[in-house]
């Protein structure tokens, strides 16, 4: 809707214009009047009309003076000039002032409404243009953070090519050779508790709130941009951009900055977090290495000593070769757990898990990275055990902590005791599934051999095992298996191992040596050779293709 102002010293003229104008048709909700130019200016300031009809010859401030003032103070105001004098000076000023039309008195209905419609058409076009401009800006402002996030992720994952993306360098301040960059990560240890108590389960809302808090800690020459890592459920990535200052001061400033961050997250949201800081770099493409060091630094934090939020710098990772200790595997205890569960002694199974946890604590140090690896192996082994006991696949979580949430298990832990409790909860879940869905005895089926291989692919599987178990000849079993499944037993073992290898290689946190051992290969080189023979590329080449989306 529009607002119109009529300025004329003759009241009959103003009344005539009111009567002749099709105000409803043009969408005018209010028609104001003024008897001279000065009064018109006062109303213009107060009421801010969209369109002004002004008479040229008036006492005091006439139309010429009014239009000159409007031209200076309100250059975008639309005007229609009305005059009883066909005077060139008036017409010239009207044109100079951007008048929509110039009407001679006495004004007739047709000319007046034609001029009004012309003016409204200009106003509507302006509003459409302004609306488009605003919408474009809103869209741009909403999409810029996501665009920056995608750029940083591509840099971290190694797929960003400067030559092909020069237009985006300015967006991440990478076009200034004086800027330096660094990555940090924030791992949310009690995320599920905070989600439940404060964010009604809305993870995206929590991550948005945390990112806003982190980005508000900007200092002169020290800015950050943070976002949730889409590949790691609990991780926030923080990109630091440093301008000026001494390079030697950056590590101290980074530690100070992240200490403020973890303290604020605890105070504002109750989040217990572990932050890792990577090295600074002068080239934005080196952020991949900085990020890897940040992840390593956070993963190096000793869970046995963790007692709240903490920050680790990349030196903790730089010396990791001196700190690595022999890791303990749960594999040797799975059969004991199964025997206890199947005999109905869940407390005994729990005792086995707690004894295993004690062996971890006895190592003297147990990092978050060790905890992640142990948890994943525990799930993998128990998945195999439960599947062998007849638990349906839909009841088995993925071999990562995210899968545990899918079956209703909480995975928070902020100290080693809570980690022990997590392992016991995991075991309890599998025990429940096995008790409620134990497989019934059935006659021999060649499928039992396939199922055994599916669950024990990491062991040294020999056909003689099945021949002795089922009192059947080696040749008969091999023939029957190939008829049923189209490949020999040894070939099928190889297929299962290779399929599992691909699944584990998709987790960048796992070393190839660890994967080799989990699959039953004692020699990393032998595993790499077997993988290359099977897929025509090495494990490292496959992992790189998967991480860059070349599937």
Automatic annotation (TrEMBL):
<dbReference type="GO" id="GO:0000160">
    <property type="term" value="P:phosphorelay signal transduction system"/>
</dbReference>
<dbReference type="InterPro" id="IPR001789">
    <property type="entry name" value="Sig_transdc_resp-reg_receiver"/>
</dbReference>
<dbReference type="InterPro" id="IPR018060">
    <property type="entry name" value="HTH_AraC"/>
</dbReference>
<feature type="domain" description="Response regulatory">
    <location>
        <begin position="3"/>
        <end position="120"/>
    </location>
</feature>
<dbReference type="Pfam" id="PF00072">
    <property type="entry name" value="Response_reg"/>
</dbReference>
<dbReference type="GO" id="GO:0005737">
    <property type="term" value="C:cytoplasm"/>
</dbReference>
<dbReference type="InterPro" id="IPR009057">
    <property type="entry name" value="Homeodomain-like_sf"/>
</dbReference>
<dbReference type="InterPro" id="IPR011006">
    <property type="entry name" value="CheY-like_superfamily"/>
</dbReference>
<dbReference type="Pfam" id="PF12833">
    <property type="entry name" value="HTH_18"/>
</dbReference>
<keyword id="KW-0805">Transcription regulation</keyword>
<feature type="domain" description="HTH araC/xylS-type">
    <location>
        <begin position="447"/>
        <end position="545"/>
    </location>
</feature>
<dbReference type="GO" id="GO:0043565">
    <property type="term" value="F:sequence-specific DNA binding"/>
</dbReference>
<dbReference type="GO" id="GO:0003700">
    <property type="term" value="F:DNA-binding transcription factor activity"/>
</dbReference>
<protein>
    <submittedName>
        <fullName>Response regulator</fullName>
    </submittedName>
</protein>
<keyword id="KW-0902">Two-component regulatory system</keyword>
<keyword id="KW-0804">Transcription</keyword>
<dbReference type="InterPro" id="IPR051552">
    <property type="entry name" value="HptR"/>
</dbReference>
<keyword id="KW-0238">DNA-binding</keyword>
<keyword id="KW-0963">Cytoplasm</keyword>
<dbReference type="InterPro" id="IPR018062">
    <property type="entry name" value="HTH_AraC-typ_CS"/>
</dbReference>
<dbReference type="InterPro" id="IPR020449">
    <property type="entry name" value="Tscrpt_reg_AraC-type_HTH"/>
</dbReference>
<feature type="modified residue" description="4-aspartylphosphate">
    <location>
        <position position="55"/>
    </location>
</feature>
<keyword id="KW-0597">Phosphoprotein</keyword>
């Amino acid at each position: 809707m529009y607002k119109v102002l009529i300025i004329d010293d003759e009241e009959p003229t103003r009344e005539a214009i009111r009567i002749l104008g099709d105000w409803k048709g043009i969408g005018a909700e209010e028609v104001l009047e003024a008897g001279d130019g000065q009064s018109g200016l006062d109303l213009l300031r107060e009421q801010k009309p969209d369109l002004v009809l002004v008479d040229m010859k008036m006492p005091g401030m006439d139309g010429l003076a009014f239009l000159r003032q409007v031209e200076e103070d309100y250059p975008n105001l639309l005007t229609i000039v009305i005059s009883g004098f066909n005077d060139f000076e008036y017409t010239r000023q009207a044109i100079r002032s951007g008048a929509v039309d110039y009407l001679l008195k006495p004004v007739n209905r047709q000319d007046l409404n034609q001029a009004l419609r012309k003016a409204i058409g200009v106003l509507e076009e302006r509003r459409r243009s302004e609306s488009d401009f605003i919408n474009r800006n809103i869209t741009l402002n909403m999409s810029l953070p996501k665009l920056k996030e995608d750029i940083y992720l591509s840099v971290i994952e190694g797929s960003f090519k400067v030559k092909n993306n020069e237009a985006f360098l300015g967006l991440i301040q990478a076009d200034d050779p004086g800027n330096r960059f660094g990555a940090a990560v924030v791992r949310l240890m009690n995320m599920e508790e905070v989600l439940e108590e404060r964010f009604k389960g809305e993870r995206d809302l929590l991550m948005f709130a945390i990112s806003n808090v982190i980005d508000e800690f900007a200092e002169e020459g020290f800015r950050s941009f943070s976002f949730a890592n889409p590949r790691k459920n609990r991780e926030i990535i923080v990109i630091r951009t440093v301008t000026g200052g001494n390079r030697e001061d950056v590590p101290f400033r980074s530690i100070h900055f992240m200490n403020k961050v973890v303290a604020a997250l605890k105070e504002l949201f109750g989040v217990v977090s572990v932050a890792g800081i990577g090295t600074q770099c002068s080239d934005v493409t080196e952020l991949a290495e900085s990020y890897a060091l940040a992840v390593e630094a956070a993963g190096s934090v000793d869970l046995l000593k963790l007692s709240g939020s903490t920050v680790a710098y990349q030196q903790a990772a730089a010396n990791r070769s001196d700190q690595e200790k022999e890791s303990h595997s749960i594999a040797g205890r799975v059969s004991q757990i199964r025997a206890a569960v199947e005999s109905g002694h869940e407390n005994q199974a729990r005792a086995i898990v707690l004894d295993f946890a004690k062996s971890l604590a006895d190592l003297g140090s147990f990092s978050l990275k060790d905890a992640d690896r142990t948890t994943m192996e525990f799930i993998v082994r128990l998945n195999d055990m439960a599947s062998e006991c007849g638990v349906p696949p839909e009841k088995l979580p993925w071999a990562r902590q995210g899968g545990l949430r899918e079956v209703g298990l909480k995975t928070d832990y902020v100290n080693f005791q809570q980690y022990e409790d997590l392992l016991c909860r995991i075991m309890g879940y599998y025990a429940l599934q096995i008790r409620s869905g134990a497989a019934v005895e059935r006659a021999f089926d060649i499928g039992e051999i396939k199922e055994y291989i599916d669950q024990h692919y990491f062991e040294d599987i020999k056909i003689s095992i099945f021949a002795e178990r089922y009192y059947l000849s080696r040749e008969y079993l091999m023939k029957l298996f190939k008829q049923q499944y189209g490949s020999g037993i040894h070939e099928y073992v190889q297929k299962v191992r290779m399929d599992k290898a691909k699944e584990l290689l998709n987790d960048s946190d796992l070393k190839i040596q660890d994967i080799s051992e989990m699959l039953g290969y004692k020699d990393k080189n032998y595993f790499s050779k077997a993988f290359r023979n099977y897929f025509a590329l090495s494990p490292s080449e496959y992992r790189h293709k998967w991480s860059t989306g070349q599937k």
